[in-house]
Amino acid sequence: MNVQILIARVLLVIALILIVINIASYSSSPEIIGQALLENNGSCNIVFEEINRTAEYRFGGKSLSGTRIETWYYMKGCRGEEIYVRVYRIQGHTPKHAIILIHDYGSNYLSLTSLALNLVDEKYLVVTLDLPYYDLTGRIKVLSKEPMSSWIYTATCNIMKAVTLIQKEYDLDKIGLLGISFGGIAALLATYYDERIDYVVSIGGLGGYVESIEKASILNYYIEGIEDINNCLDPLPLMKNIKKDVLLIMGSNDEVFPLDTNTLAELVRNKHISISIVPNSGHFRIPSLWEKVIHEFITSRELNSNGFGESDVDVENTGFDILVEVNGNSSILVMHRPSIPGYPWSTSNLSSGKARFTYLLVPGEYFILKGDNYVLCKALYTRESYGLIIGLILFIIWLILDRRILMSLRRLNWLEIIYGIVLVLLLTYPLYPAIWGVDRFHASLLQIAETYLTYLPFVTYLITYSLYIQPILFTYMIFRRSRKIYMLYLALPIFTTVTSTTLILFLGSRFYYTPITIPTIPLLLVVVAMVMDYIFSETIPS
After folding, report:
1. β-strands 517-519, 433-437: how paired?
2. CB-side neighbour CA atoms (13 Å) of 287
């Protein structure tokens, strides 16, 4: 092989990689949020405004534990069930600020005991509710087409009744809510519709159900099918116009409600909303750091301070890169990555001066966070890159240097052309809808790689880096005619598709529902390629 041909083939590999990763980036870049997603049309208001907030309850008992007084009540719930309400306060102190804690769906009030004790030590009145997810008819669905039969609606209703209870029993100036996951969603809804609630903290609970389901998120294991979704139970459309203070705490790799750059960029424009993004954390693995963030947020609410989410930083987005300038003594954390699902986030700390961030060869995504509490200042992405242009130029140079490929194409019949097209399409197999969850989603492998990064990182990285591996295998295969490389080229889509499907089935066995999943387009392309290979068995000799 002469030097010219070698250079040409290296150029082809680079060109294909640049073209593939840019197609992946543009095809999966954050979509512009439609008005329907972040605006409330008011049609759901009546569902929550007609809730009977009257609290029927009886005194259960009182105990003294060290310096803490613990009092409990039994309240009649919205379904007629008995709701256990436990109240913590410091002996000899009359708190004016109450915090109601709401546990996740499928959990109970005991899961919040540690947090409750930490907060009561700060001299708040702390309330925990036990919100059952079973009744006499069986398990209550977390979401339901009929809103009033769902756990989220019932939890929201019981929160409002609990507010009535503590207002009757205690002299309070301020009431806040803190919810975990689906408990956070109920807390957001209650805060929006109940004027007596002053602020809310939601940990891992945001909403955006349809978008999360279509990304093959773990939310799929909580519903029987897409018909369970009712937008009246989704707080995300309400957040754009909420007038109360909100703190959203989310892991950067949330598996239930995956982060969306455009959604966060829209939400952070509301001065009442603070969003704390914990780097390298999933939905179920948000570390103890958030207790410090919560305390800081609640303290700032008590002081009526708006400084919690403020930071002295300027950000300029040129389309190709971003320029971050830190003013004063602020500490800034920049999370950044190529705008390709499945890529892990990188972090950079800034304490002064300017810094430029760019992915010149591919679009990028960026979160600008306060360094002390990870509160989001800006969420943005760069749409422009030189990678696609450079890739196309290198591809043309390769055609000029290595003309034999054009000569061989002229001799192909139509079946051979179809075979070649199928092999080319397998270059970008992670981009195509790959796994069909019946009545739920039709997700690409890249979307699955993004969602399940914390569960099976090996498969995630294999899917993501196959955007680089496949062009290398393809180039080697077409020029060296290697049977082993050809089989590896087909085996990679098979392995990642089958492994991802198995993962989804396995996770379903650990939750409430198991989606019926069917491998689709990438596997179909492999089957077609194998059939064509059998027909043209002499195309790639052993």
Report:
1. antiparallel
2. 9
Strands (E), 239-317: 245-253, 273-282, 313-317
Residues 268 and 251 placed together within one structural domain of the fold = yes
Of 334, 456, 360, 261, the C-alpha closest to 21 is 360
Domain that holds residue 154: 41-303
CA–CA distance, 50 with 47 (Å, rounded to integer) = 6
Q: How many residues does the chain have?
A: 542
Residue pair 25/339 in contact (Cβ under 8 Å)? The answer is yes
Query: Within a domain: residue 372?
Result: yes
pTM of the model: 0.90
DSSP 375: B
Whether residue 73 is found in the same domain as residue 27: no
Band of pLDDT at residue 28, cut at 50, 70 and 90: low
Please report, to the nearest 10 degrees, the dihedral formed by the alpha carbons of residues 447, 452, 453, 459 taken in order: -80
Q: What pLDDT, in 10s, does the model give residues 358-407? A: 988 999 999 999 888 889 999 998 888 889 999 999 998 888 887 777 67
- Same-domain check for residues 104 and 234: yes
If we measure between CA atoms, which residue out of 482, 306, 449, 293 comes closest to residue 372? 293
136/273 same-domain check? yes
Residue 288 pLDDT: 66
Place of tokens 């439609």: 34
Summarised one tens digit per residue, pLDDT across range 424-479 is: 999 999 999 999 999 899 999 999 998 888 877 888 889 999 999 999 999 988 88
Tell me the C-alpha distance between 97 and 149, whole Å: 32
Handedness of CA 276, 280, 283, 287 (dihedral sign): negative
Q: What is the DSSP letter of 92?
A: T
